[in-house]
Design brief:
Chain lengths: 279, 219, 225
């Protein structure tokens, strides 16, 4: 068997090992990388930046731990930005795991910035029903959420004193891993109730949302770890996304090399076969 | 027969029409009905989740008792994990109880995140074996993918940074990537979006009219 | 934040489970299978508990307790009844009753989708494709935007032509459809690039966990941290 034939039948575990090393080694050096801004991320940053102090921001955690690596750094970055701008935050989730992930961030961040639950932020928890829940929020927040995630009536939470429906929010941020998610926030919150919507999605689904961004239905969008790294750069707080960029670099390079090697091997072996057939 | 077939179709048509009409006539009568229906939906869908859970429980139980011998143990693992998590949730503190938190943070999160991270290895393997430029179309796809993959990591900036701000700015990879994403990709996605929406609306109308009734199952 | 011993044990366990899943890369094995089934069980249990505490308690039990009249009671009782009908699916002899609940859910979804899809994904998208033509100008400032607007219009039309199968893709129409395929190939190429990015990111997340949190927890447990 020639070298090329061996290469063509390479054990997939060797490929696994190479990609594993391409990710593992760069991360050992823990070097945060500042990335070039793209307009779509810049726009969501500027949208939140432009809100006056004390604005109400609804943050919907529409994802589960399977996409934690991509979406959690975005959530952390946006939350930090909101805190720095002194916005009030209401968390919720169209996925059951979302509110718990939001709680995880706030348990660390709230004491750091001396935030008071019920005044500066609140966690409403989860409701099933996707688009219908959002529409219901448009009628009255208490329709789908009579209580917060811990069973406290919204009447007893001062943050809701002047906030009764979805229209009373100044901005909606959806961190979305699929359905239900940011698409439904665009459909209902933006298109029906005219509340600005921005957010973050997994890189897999990001390309689909450029149509909403172009039409102005979506204020801005972070796509995948790269989007999170851009936001971290914008707020000048490097986090896991910025540190992860070095590994992303090398892994992409490896994937491109794999495709080139795979295609080159295929072409050469095909030519060889054709030649031997002619002979 | 009426209660099994015609009645459900009537429920669907009635509810769908009310929701559509309420959208156009936001008067208290219609809006109130819409709000009530929305509340009901929330609760009904929750039961669907319970149905799924019960189904998982009974299927696992059946497999644990009568399934393939070598798989029985694993089905018991599923059942014990399911009941254990539920029990932890009913301890003092509920969803904030230390036991429930422990399971979520140290069992559920790592398992969920790692299972999906395996895909990185398979995408690498597929890139070596399956992603072949066998036609012009496949080549266009791969070249676009190359540009986007390089343009979205710092490497693209490092390699073509010299072009930034010069008359050759259009060669700067992050700029090319932005253009692909915001113009070509956007146009394609918009067409897909419009096509899918037309399909959904057509299916919706067929459901309202009772032409499409596969959601009711057999019989 | 300082790490407690229980926290360190938890993170250590999380790391072991992470490696258990990764063991599948070598080959399928009992440790992986165990971890996989553990995931299914905990995931379903988590869903159930959150549905209980975040929906059944506030939207059913509390709503019933605080109901002030017939309408309030009715608005809780009826959906619960429909919900129980849904569960009848598990009993073959009366499973047809679940169709009523299913019919209600489908009706709601259809009612919502028909209008919102039309508004969000058709009218707004057509508007966004055409509206730049109201202010086309080919001077220095607007040249790029105008050219892009023309490209977008042509590309959207070509891709839509490709999707229209009621007319055979031959002649001039076929050529436009061919351009539509190119547009879609570029779109799929972009999606492919982003998919690679997404998959790698997920792995980065796990490796970061092992290199930082897990390593710190191990040092804490053996008394080095």
């Amino acid at each position: 068997m020639s070298f090329l034939e061996k290469l063509d039948r390479l054990d997939r575990r060797i490929i696994f090992l190479i990609i594993g090393i391409a990710v593992f080694v760069p991360l050992l050096f823990r070097v945060p990388i500042k990335v070039v801004q793209s307009p779509i991320v810049q726009d969501i940053y500027e949208g939140i930046e432009a809100l006056p102090e004390g604005s109400m921001v609804l943050l919907s955690f529409d994802y589960d731990p399977s996409t934690l690596a991509e979406l959690q750094p975005m959530s952390e970055a946006v939350i930090k930005h909101c805190i720095l701008k002194k916005h009030r935050m209401v968390f919720m989730g169209l996925w059951p795991q979302g509110p718990k992930l939001a709680q995880g961030i706030m348990e660390t961040v709230a004491p750091q910035y001396d935030l008071q639950y019920g005044v500066d932020y609140v966690n409403l928890g989860y409701k099933t029903g996707g688009m219908v829940v959002i529409s219901s929020l448009g009628s009255a927040i208490t329709d789908p959420f009579p209580t917060d995630m811990n069973g406290v009536s919204l009447r007893n939470l001062p943050i809701f004193d002047n906030v009764k429906t979805l229209r009373d929010f100044d901005y909606v941020v959806s961190m979305s891993a699929g359905d239900p998610g940011i698409k439904h926030w665009v459909m209902i919150a933006k298109d029906r109730f005219k509340v600005p919507v921005g957010g973050g999605v997994t890189a897999v689904s990001a390309p689909a949302f450029y149509a909403y961004y172009n039409s102005g239905q979506l204020e801005g969008l972070m796509g995948g770890l790269r989007g999170a790294a851009e936001y971290e750069t914008l707020i000048d707080t490097p986090g896991t996304a910025s540190y992860g960029m070095s590994a992303q670099n090398w892994a992409h390079l490896m994937i491109i090399l794999f495709i080139i090697i795979g295609n080159t091997t295929m072409l050469i072996l095909k030519r060889k076969k054709e030649k031997s057939r002619v002979r | 027969m009426f209660w099994k077939r015609q009645f459900p179709i009537m429920i669907t048509a009635f509810v769908a029409v009310v929701m559509i009409v309420a959208y156009f006539i936001p008067k208290p009568g219609f809006a109130g009905t819409r709000d009530n229906l929305q509340q009901w939906f929330l609760i009904v869908v929750t039961f669907t989740m319970v149905l799924g859970l019960l189904n998982l429980f009974f299927v696992s139980l059946h497999k644990a008792r009568k399934g393939r011998k070598e798989d029985r143990f694993y089905n018991w693992v599923t059942i014990v994990a399911l009941l254990g998590t539920i029990a932890a949730g009913f301890l003092k503190g509920g969803i904030n109880s230390p036991a429930f938190d422990f399971i979520f943070n140290y069992v559920y999160i790592p398992l969920s995140a790692t299972i999906f991270s395996l895909l990185a290895f398979y995408v690498a393997s597929a890139s070596f074996r399956a992603f072949r430029a066998k036609s012009v179309m496949a080549t266009i796809l791969l070249i676009t993918a190359f540009i986007v993959m390089l343009g979205r990591v710092p490497l693209g900036d490092w390699v073509t940074g010299w072009a930034q701000g010069t008359s050759l700015d259009f060669l700067y990879l992050p700029n090319i990537t932005n253009w692909i994403m915001e113009v070509m990709n956007m146009a394609g996605q918009r067409a897909v979006l419009m096509g899918a929406a037309l399909g959904l609306i057509a299916t919706g109308i067929k459901i309202i009219l009772g032409i499409e009734r596969s959601y009711l199952g057999g019989e | 934040m300082t790490m407690t011993f229980a926290g360190a044990i938890g993170i250590f366990l999380a790391g072991v489970l992470t490696l258990a899943i990764f063991s599948f890369l070598y080959k399928d094995n009992p440790v992986y299978k165990f971890a996989e089934h553990l995931f299914v069980g905990t995931s379903a249990g988590y869903w159930f508990i959150y549905n209980v505490y975040n929906i059944f308690v506030p939207n059913v039990l509390v709503a019933w307790r605080e109901a002030g009249g017939f309408a309030d009671y009715f608005n809780v009782a009826l959906p619960v009844l429909l919900g129980f009908f849904m569960l009848m699916r598990l009993i073959p002899s009366v499973s047809w009753i679940s169709r009523w609940a299913m019919a209600f859910s489908v009706g709601m979804t259809v009612g919502f989708n028909t209008i919102t899809e039309l508004q969000t994904n058709i009218l707004q998208q057509i508007g966004a494709t055409l509206s730049p033509f109201a202010s086309l100008h080919f001077n220095n400032g607007g040249l790029v935007a105008s050219v892009n607007a023309i490209i977008i219009l042509l590309a959207v039309l070509a891709a839509l032509v490709y999707f229209f199968f009621s007319k055979e893709h031959t002649g001039g129409y076929g050529h436009i459809a061919k351009v539509g395929i190119w547009v879609l190939m570029i779109t799929f190429g972009a999606s492919f690039g982003y998919t690679v990015m997404a998959r790698i990111s997920l792995l980065i997340g796990r490796v970061q966990f092992l290199q930082t949190d897990w390593w710190v927890a191990i040092k804490h447990i053996i008394g080095l941290g």
